[in-house]
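HUMAN: Forgive my ignorance: could you write out one protein's sequence and C-alpha cells?

ASSISTANT:
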Amino acid sequence: MRQRAVIAMALALNPELIIMDEPTTALDVVVQRDILQQVEDLQATFGFSILFITHDLSLLVEFSTRIAVMYAAQIVELAPAGDLFRQPMHPYTVGLMNSFPSIKGPKMELQGIPGSPPNLIGPPSGCRFHPRCSRCDPANLPLYRLQTETAPMLREVAPNHWVACHLY
C-alpha cells in the first residue's frame, strides 16, 4: 500500500516525468505486476514518462520501451528493450542476462560475473568493466591496452543501439 500511496502522491502534480527507484522492492511477484500494470495504465492516460531504476531485469523487458544498462556509474549500453534482450552487446549486459533464469526455452546453468564492482573513489583506468571482463585478454596486446588505458565512448553500433565498448 505504501508504494501505491507514494505513486499517487507523485502523480498528484501531473508531472511530465516520474523517477521510480526500485518501486517494487520487497513485494511479491503478483503485487509487483499489479502495481506496474496500474502505473502503465496511468501513463497511457496522462502521458508522462517514467525513468525506472531497478536491478530486476525481468520487469524491464515487460514494462520498458528503452533500457540503459549502467556499470560503475556509466551507461555501457542503451537500446530498445526488445533489442537489448534479443542481442545484448556489452560484456556486462551479456553477463547480467546470463545471471538470471529464463522461464522460457531450455534450462541453462546460471553464470555469475567474476570479481567485484570497482571502488568509485578510484575507478579502474580505461573501461571500468575491464577487470571483470572475459573479453579483456592480455594475449591481444593492442586491444588490451586500449581496454585498460582508454575509456570507451558510447557509440551507435546498430540502429538505436548504443554501446560503450572497445570491441565495437
User: Anything to note?
Assistant: Residues 20 and 52 are 5 Å apart (CA to CA).
